[in-house]
Amino acid sequence: MKFNTRSFLVLSLLGLALGASAAEGDLPGQLSSPPGPVQKAQESASKAARSAEQAALEAARRARVAAEMSEANMGKVSQSIAEGLRKAARRAADAATRFREKAELAADASMEQGRAAANATLSESRKAAAASGAALERAEEYVRRSAEAGKEDATKAAEATRDALKQAAQVSRDAARSAHDAVKAARDAASKSRDR
């Protein structure tokens, strides 16, 4: 078999490239080294932040649905409407509680670079849970008033419920934005640690 100059040059360059790769520890076809503890912690923080964001979006959706339901029934007072609002408020409060729990996990898992955003989300999640809890209390009061009180008292309770649900929806939207920012901060932190 004859080798010409071009073949020799190509083989020489290939040998040099393989030698350089071997010196750096990256042989072609070799799997990359397993992630270290810092990278695993960053991935865990990112996953926790994404989970909190999903819970925040669900809480915001539930709060919005309850607020829209109260708006749609404005001026109407009945036991069935009150019960429906209470159920919607309960679902919103439960979703806000799940969000707060996931935000606590995300704050615990957060790395230094993403800690401020995770703590801000935790604070917002607590506000959302409190606002949703207050809305649920108003809805339960509305149910009681519609069952036992006169129309005027029931109407006032319905208005208080609507106001509380609107407030919960606004706070939940703010919390979802904060959770989104925390996910971005966790991703940025993970990206910086990989670039080092």
Describe what this molecule looks like in 3D.
This protein has 196 residues and is mainly α. The protein has helices at residues 5-24, 37-72, 79-109, 115-148, 151-195. The chain has one domain (42-195). It is 85% helix and 0% strand. The protein starts with a helix and ends with a helix. 40% of the residues are buried.
Question: What labels describe this entry?
Answer:
196 residues; mainly alpha; 0% strand
What's the SSE blueprint?
Elements: H1 5-24, H2 37-72, H3 79-109, H4 115-148, H5 151-195
Please work out how many helical segments DSSP would assign.
Answer: 5
| Morphology | elongated
Q: Return Rg in Å.
A: 28 Å
Low-confidence spans: 20-27
Main sheet characteristics: none
- Fraction in beta strands: under 5%
- Give the mean pLDDT: 80
The string of secondary-structure elements, in order, is HHHHH
> How many E strands?
0
Count of separate structural domains: 1
Tell me the structural class: mainly alpha
Secondary structure: helix percent: over 70%
Ends distance: 47 Å
Gist?
The protein has five helices and no strands. With 196 residues, the chain is mostly helical. Helix 3 (79-109) runs antiparallel to helix 4 and helix 4 (115-148) runs antiparallel to helix 5 (151-195).
